[in-house]
Amino acid sequence: MDPRSLFPDHLRVRLDCLEQALAATGFPALVVSSGVPFTYCADDHEAPFQGVPHFRHYCPLEGPHHVLRLEPGRRPVLALHVPRDFWCEQEPMEDAAFWADLFELREAATPDAVWDLAGRPAGAAYIGDEPGRAEAAGLQPNPASLLSRLDWGRSFKTPYEIGTLEEATALGARGHLASREAFLAGGSEVAIHHAFVQAVDALDHQLAYPSIVALEPKGAILHYRNKRRRGDGKVLLLDCGARVRGYGSDITRTTAAPGCDPRFQSLMGGILELQRTVCAALKPGLPFLQAHQLAHRELCGLLHRSGILKAAPEEALALGLSRPFMPHGLGHFLGLNIHDVAGHSTGPDGALLPPPEQYPSLRLTRTLEPGHVLTVEPGLYFIPMLLQQFREGPYAGRFDWRLIDELSPLGGIRFEDNVVMTGSGIRNITQEYLPS
Ligand code: GLY
Ligand code: MN
Ligand code: MN
Fold first, then answer.
1. Could you report the per-residue pLDDT of 370-411, keeping only the tens digit for each?
2. Rounded CA gap, 32 and 143, in Å?
3. Ligand 3 centroid vs 40 CA: distance in angstroms?
4. Nearest ligand to the C-alpha of residue 211?
5. Residue 430 burial (CB < 10 Å; 0-12/13-18/19+)?
6. Which among 248, 247, 241 has a CA at the least distance from the CA of 199?
7. CA dihedral 154, 173, 425, 339 (to 10 degrees)
8. E strand or H helix at 420
């Protein structure tokens, strides 16, 4: 089914959720703007525009300076910015047939006039990146009490959102297959990146996030953004996703070329197995921290079996010896933001459950519920800066440093899938398009 046919239901659910949030916080209405482009210092060029996610949650329209006015019991008003500007092509209203009729459309040529058209409902809240303008209009900008409720609502995806995320996943999978071929043909990081954007038929800034295309040691740099022109790598860590109507996929695959060190390939198999074990444990009612702890328990076993750690798994876990090998969290919510909102919330009122001290990068501490969409992305990296502390520390004897030094030039391993929580477990939407 085309997810776009589900948009009217999505909007109704979102507006119901908003109505409850407004009632709980005492605001009569909400004004949301689509965003202002970032202009580089002392220049007249703009950075590629990314819309305010709260705007995109109600309206799939791309582009800056539009304003939504949402009031219970009233048709949503969309004040459109349609500038009279011959320098640039105006952002066309493409693919609007499935949603435009649901809004009262108004048009104006300047941002000021757009705000005038949207109106200034007395005492209303505002969400967006123009708090000064909102205050001048008598609106309360970005109130935390309302934001926390709407963010909480964003963590439960509607069927329209799940279908759209699946579309983004299918597209991202197509890019991964093309990139893998480019890698196996000896392509450079630049060439592998180009294979991805060509396969998903996108421009760079239309991807879900800046692609991570890492050959060998660069795989150990978790957010490696540079792209080298040297190819013929033995290992590719590719973390790339596509974007559809604002929703992104976030997919990582690690591929070994023929002749890659079999010990490293065996670690890759171990991380895949670990990912399957963790995925099988994901159920509604499970605190995600427990899944993250399970991943570290399994990782300790793998590091021990492979000889990297001499400590037995239980001891290694107690001493935190797997942490330098996987310093990031097991996963995060996925949606309009790649690291989607409300991962630390305990309820709509804004209370938070931060990650424990030993896992500071864990972005998701929620108890899993049906309708959540998240990534599951275990990894194993040889990161010199993190390993150095252990080389010099009291537990240095629990590591096989010679083996670590031999494997370090190959960088790291990550497998990242996107999964939807169902009533009984997960649906792994990435495996459906890109089996690993
Ligand atoms: N692509 C960033 C991440 O996996 O979280
Ligand atoms: Mn991720
Ligand atoms: Mn990723």
1. 999 999 999 999 999 999 999 999 999 999 999 999 999 999
2. 12
3. 27
4. 1
5. buried
6. 241
7. -30
8. strand 417-421
Which residues' Cβ are closer than 6 Å to ligand 1?
Answer: 209, 239, 250, 377, 416
Closest ligand 1 atom, CA of 250? 1
Q: Could you check whether 3-154 and 159-433 share the same CATH topology?
A: no
Residue type, position 355, single letter: P
Q: Are 261 and 410 in contact (CB under 8 A)?
A: yes
Which class does domain 3-154 fall in? alpha beta
Tell me the C-alpha distance between 219 and 196, whole Å. Answer: 17
State the distance from the centre of ligand 2 to the C-alpha of 47, rounded, in angstroms: 23
Cβ distance 254 to 415 under 8 Å?
A: yes
Q: Where are the domains of the chain?
A: 3-154, 159-433
The Å distance, Cα 377 to ligand 2 centre, comes to 7
**Who contacts 405 (Cβ-Cβ below 8 Å, separation ≥6)?**
none
Bridge partners, residue 332, by sequence:
none
Q: What is the mean pLDDT of residues 5-12?
A: 98
**For atom 4 of ligand 1, which residue has the closest CA?**
250
Per CATH, domain 159-433 is 3.40.50.1820: no
Number of C-beta neighbours around residue 203 at 10 A = 9
**Using H for helix, E for strand and C for coil, what is the string for 61-104?**
CCCCCCEEEECCCCCCEEEEECCCCCCCCCCCCCCCCCCHHHCE
pLDDT at 359 over 90: yes
Q: What's the pTM value of the predicted model, to 2 decimals?
A: 0.97
